[in-house]
Write a structure and sequence with these properties.
456 residues; alpha/beta; Rossmann fold; 3 domains; two-stranded antiparallel ribbon; 10 strands; 53% helix; EPS_sugar_tfrase; transmembrane; transferase; Bact_transf
């Protein structure tokens, strides 16, 4: 197969969510045409209720957690389960807001038209993806390493099946990995083919060699998946998915791999950053600009390239707190740093220098809560010293993070301090929830008001 440049497969989940929402709203317009309303409020309540109901139903049924577009029978089963919960919720909302039950004829039409429309919409989308794949349009490079075990054959069959899309499959079934030289050859092949997901389905060699490969994959941001046996792993925060009945172990659990969770987090980011930009930055930027004109020469903002999600470089915005200097991209701020101005010291201790990063959040290059982005020089240095350092780049960087509110804010002058920060960043990645983000924001505000020893 060709080794075309790949994209994240998230677009399939986004497309399915968009198709579903468009379909149920189209059916709602049809329903609206055949119904008499007492007032506009009732009409609006029905449309809002239908959308809220579908959003909640899809979330709790994990409707968009799938990694592929399923066969017709599975599509019908999935849509049936969604519609059952959706109809129950809509009926409750309608009766509560309007005070009367659906007319039976219209209600029956809504059920059948919605059900078959959703199935047909998904099936047409499946055909669209098949057509794109026939033209060689691939999205994600996948390698399966396996011998003659049945699990390897089933996994290869799964990725090769007509119901799986966006996968450029590479088989490595004739290589037995039992020596260090074999592992090194495999690493070169993974790098050359630009593999995104690596599946191990083979007898486990020396455990040290296995651990070396896992660590290497994570540092290269290649997601490692093991098709079991579990007994060879030290049990940790792992997760298991079923690919048509075949259990596949994901070495690292990532809640933000779920499409629905990313939607919730992005909505929170947009909402929170919009409030900050409108109600705080709108007056804070002019105020800091005026103060800066009287205290130090130079630009208002300090814009620096930092390491972002998937180690992609982005431009982070801060209020400038230092004199213009040549070491800003190489040297981290330290206590009593003579580069920091008097105004800059006030901004840094109160964390106000970080406020412009909400612009980054609104634009989507950062998130409110996540691992703090490091300078490019630090990423290069620490990725060579700390085995799991690059794992933190699997999610967007944040203005604040779990490490920052648990004692690891500020400088990381020693390797132990950076290792502690990385461990907490990875813990956050593996345990994310919207409530955890809210907790981190609360602790960040609380610490800023009380003052922090490491804020300098």
């Amino acid at each position: 197969m060709s080794t075309t440049q790949t994209q994240q497969p998230d677009f399939i989940q986004r497309h399915l969510a968009t198709i579903d929402l468009f379909t149920i709203n189209f059916v709602a317009v049809f329903l609206d045409y055949h119904m008499d309303y007492i007032n506009v409020f009732q009409q609006l309540a029905l449309f809002v209720g239908i959308n809220i109901s579908w959003f909640l139903t899809a979330y709790f049924h994990k409707a968009y957690r799938i990694r592929n577009v399923m066969g017709f029978r599975n599509i019908a089963r999935s849509v049936f389960n969604l519609m059952l919960s959706h109809i129950t919720t809509v009926t409750f909302i309608y009766c509560y807001s309007i005070g009367s039950p659906f007319p039976k004829r219209i209600f029956t039409l809504y059920i059948f038209v919605s059900f078959f429309s959703l199935i047909l919409a998904r099936k047409f989308y499946q055909k669209y993806l098949e057509n794109k794949e026939r033209r060689g349009y691939q999205y994600r490079n996948v390698m399966v390493l396996g011998d003659d075990r049945a699990s390897a054959k089933r996994l290869i069959k799964f990725f090769s099946s007509s119901s799986t899309f966006g996968v450029n499959l590479f088989k490595n079934d004739k290589i037995n990995i039992y020596r260090k030289e074999d592992i090194e050859l495999l690493k070169k092949k993974i790098t050359h083919l630009k593999i995104n997901d690596f599946y191990w389905s083979q007898a486990v060699p020396d455990k040290k060699l296995m651990r070396d490969l896992i660590t290497w994959c994570e540092n290269q941001m290649v997601r490692f998946h093991y098709v079991p046996e579990f007994s060879h792993f030290k049990l940790r925060n792992i997760s298991v998915d079923l690919y048509e009945g075949l259990p596949v172990l994901h070495y690292r659990k990532e809640p933000l791999e779920r499409f629905s969770n990313r939607v919730f987090k992005r909505c929170f980011d947009i909402f929170f950053s919009s409030l900050v930009i409108i109600f705080i930055l709108s007056w804070l930027i002019p105020l800091v600009w005026i103060a800066m004109r009287f205290s130090m020469p130079g630009p208002l903002f300090f814009i620096q390239e930092r390491s972002g999600k998937n180690d992609e470089t982005f431009r982070m915005i801060k209020f400038r707190s230092m004199k213009v200097n040549k070491d800003s991209d190489k040297q981290q701020a330290t206590k009593d740093d003579n580069r920091i101005t008097k105004l800059g010291s006030i901004l840094r201790k109160s964390s106000l220098d970080e406020m412009p990063q909400f612009i980054n959040v609104f634009l989507g290059t950062m998130t409110v809560v996540g691992p703090r982005p490091h300078m490019l020089k630090h990423t290069e240095e620490y990725s060579a010293l700390i085995n799991t350092y690059m794992v933190r780049h699997l999610v967007k960087p944040g203005i604040t993070g779990w490490a920052q509110v648990t004692g690891y804010r500020g400088g990381t002058e020693t390797l132990d301090l950076m290792e502690g920060r990385v461990k907490r960043d990875i813990w956050y990645l593996e345990n994310w929830s919207l409530l955890l983000d809210i907790k981190v924001v609360y602790l960040t505000v609380k610490n800023a008001l009380m003052g922090e020893e490491n804020a300098y």
